[in-house]
Amino acid sequence: MISVFIAFPFCRHKCSYCDLNAYAGLDDLIPAYVESLIVETRLIGRGADAPVHTVYFGGGTPSLIPLPLLSDLFASLRDSFALTDDCEISLEANPDTVDAAYLKGLRQLGVNRLSLGAQSAQANELTLFGRTHTFDDVARAVKLAREAGFENISLDLIYGAPGQTMESWQDTMKRHLALGVDHFSLYALSLDFGTPLRAWVSRGLLPEPDSDLAAEMYEWADEELGRAGFTQYEISSWAKKEELQTSNSKLQNSKFECRHNLQYWRNEPYLGLGAGAHGWCGGFRYSNAASPKAYVNRMKEGVERPFPFSPALAQSIPVNRETEMSETMLTGLRLVSEGVSEESFRQRYGSGLGDVFAKELGELSARGLVEWTEDGARLKKEGRLVANWAFEKFV
Ligand code: SF4
User: Fold this and answer.
1) Could you please report the per-residue DSSP string of 256-270?
2) 242: containing domain
3) Which of 246, 265, 284 lies at the terminal end of a domain, its last residue?
4) Which pLDDT belongs to residue 243?
């Protein structure tokens, strides 16, 4: 089974920490952009012969897509791909961009998982981040989403920001936990190149983020989420414990784990549609033109390319077996409870973990960061805070 990612790189306002492929002030281009997505969906769908079990609308801010345009895009998606009956369809939304009618419309189209960019409950932190919403907007969006029938709601939060205190972080976590959602993604703030936040810190206008404090925030949040009935299944992701009763149990341990992201972390194939979208399919990693204007122009020019590439292709890199095995370790070790299974690795590559990565796993295991047994390898709690360092072993 494959997954489909649809990029919508339009935002009302660019956040101060954001280095994603996202643009403010291009709203006039949205109708032409969605039209291009519809064309791309048809072209790529012609070559896709596997069922699609997850679709993810990522941003940018996909909740800025007007419902009539989204409806046309869904019609094309369903015509072009074999979506499974229980296909997980996620859409990222900013809390102040949705109302009751919009959320009901999303449910009617088949969106069944909503991911809200909440980030903080503190007004001063939201202002610092350049967010346009308040905590009350998040609470309102969650309530309206429940009323619209969403049974799977996720919140993104940021910790480790300049000036953020343990008290403000605990308050942020507790207030968002009280909203009764099903999934949390917690991200350590990184000062990425080219962002205003990085410039403010470099000019001394803001204090340097405190990495020790960020580690304490992470550990406290993990414990607090555990007390609230959530299980960590990936370095940054926690899902409400709820056993699956259906055939999905092969795909995830709790019905609230993000099946689309599991596809990435298991290094399974996905198709990327839209400006700047990345894909991994047919032995290639590839990406489309990043600028929405360039994307629309390339789709209009319509240069024919073989599946999985579209006329908007900007770059493609063939991935050999060695690289694919390394990538499987890099992404699979993010799955803190599942890890990389010996059996699935052997089935996929014809070699065991010890045949390929004995040195790397031996070293990480000796340092107490990875648990390596005959069943497979997984990151230990001690390894989570130094995960990036540990992953470099496989690059
Ligand atoms: S809403 Fe998201 S994608 Fe858009 S600028 Fe902010 S962080 Fe970036």
Assistant:
1) TS-HHHHHHHTT--E
2) 2-265
3) 265
4) 66
Separation between Cα atoms, residue 383 and residue 1, nearest integer Å = 31
326: CATH:
1.10.10.920
Residue 386: the pLDDT is 87
In angstroms, what is the span from residue 91 Cα to ligand 1's centroid? 14
> How many domains does the chain fold into?
2
Residues of the chain with pLDDT under 50: none
Peptide bond into 308 cis (omega under 30): yes
Residue with CA at minimum distance from ligand 1 atom 7: 18
Would you state the pLDDT for residue 393?
87
The reply to whether 11 falls in a domain is yes
Q: Which residues contact 71 (CB under 8 A, 6 or more apart)?
A: 105, 109
pTM over 0.85: yes
- Ligand 1: atom nearest CA of 9 is 3
pLDDT, residue 253, reads: 75
pLDDT computed for residue 250 by the predictor:
59
CATH number at residue 132: 3.20.20.70
Residue 14 in contact with ligand 1 by CB distance below 6 A = yes
Q: Is residue 238 one of the residues assigned to a domain? A: yes
Pocket test for ligand 1, best of 18, 156, 157 (most atoms within 8 A of CB): 18
**DSSP letter (8 states) at residue 152:** -
pLDDT in tens, 89-146: 999 999 999 999 999 999 999 999 999 999 999 999 999 999 999 999 999 999 999 9
In a domain, 64, yes or no: yes
Cβ(130) to ligand 1 under 6 A? no
Nearest CA to ligand 1 atom 2: 60
Boundary-marking domain end, from 265, 286, 310: 265
What's the distance, CA 209 to chain centroid?
A: 24
Distance CA 176, CA 225 (A): 11
Please tell me the predicted confidence (pLDDT) of residue 247: 54
Q: Which atom of ligand 1 is nearest to the CA of 94?
A: 1
Q: Angle, to 10 degrees, between the axis of helix 353-366 and the axis of helix 342-349?
A: 140
Q: Ligand 1 atom closest to Cα of 92? A: 2
**Is position 314 within any domain?**
no
Residue ID of nearest Cα to ligand 1 atom 8: 18
